[in-house]
Amino acid sequence: MRPFCLVLFASLLLASSAWSQDAPSASPDFEAGDRALLFQIGPNLDLSGLNSTVALKRHRSATSARRFSLGVQGELSGSDAQDRQALAVFVNYLFLAYSRSRTQVHLYYGLGPTAGFRYQDFSDERGNEAERVSLDIGLAGVLGVEWRVHEAIGLTGEYNSILVGTYEHQSSAGGDVDLYGVALRSNGARLGLSVYF
């Protein structure tokens, strides 16, 4: 599946590059009021589990934007020895700053609040079961680039991390445990496609 995704992404990249050369009216800069839907896939283009983000972005000027994101990560794996289910849902609202550029490639960075919910369930061949539920609230940070290949299309690559306060409830045959803490997590590199409308 990974080679297919790489070929698909490379094809989109080449096609959009050719498309942008045919359209000299495409502006390399953003304008106030520009809106886009952003679709991202997770770290290392790994599509073995559900790992995607959808975001709505609106530019307030050529150098600033606001972005609301909803992300879902899920995994269902099983073997003779162990079964595992995991689901995570998160939302964030980022205040983004874009660099001015003479090209169509723009560096951006941003910060904003984030909240998330995670659920994990484990079981093994001996009948042992454990369940973990956690809630996160904190601050998300992002650093990335966007290549505006056409007036209506942008390709993004970004790296993001979160600093969150966590509450976790663990249940198992040995009893229940409640844990509180602070965590710094990396969500890894993500590739995305922005569709402007």
Largest sheet: 8 strands, antiparallel, barrel
Quaternary structure annotation:
single chain
- Rg: 20 Å
Percent strand equals: over 45%
List the secondary-structure elements in sequence, H or E.
Answer: HEEEEEEEE
Going across the major beta sheet, what is the strand order? Answer: 1-2-3-4-5-6-7-8
Number of strands: 8
Shape: elongated
Average pLDDT across residues? 83
Through-space gap between termini? 31 Å
SSE layout:
Layout: H1 2-21, E1 35-41, E2 50-59, E3 64-78, E4 82-98, E5 105-124, E6 129-150, E7 153-172, E8 175-196
Antiparallel strand pairs: 1-2, 1-8, 2-3, 3-4, 4-5, 5-6, 6-7, 7-8
Describe what this molecule looks like in 3D.
This protein is mostly beta strands and 197 residues long. It has one helix and eight strands. The protein has an eight-stranded antiparallel barrel. The longest helix is centred in the N-terminal third of the chain and has 20 residues, at 2-21. The two termini are 31 Å apart. Mean pLDDT is 83; it is low at 3-8 and 14-26.
Give the structure's gist in a few sentences.
The chain has an eight-stranded antiparallel beta barrel with strand order 1-2-3-4-5-6-7-8.
List keywords for this structure.
mainly beta, 8-stranded antiparallel β-barrel, single chain, elongated, 1 helix, disordered N terminus, 197 residues
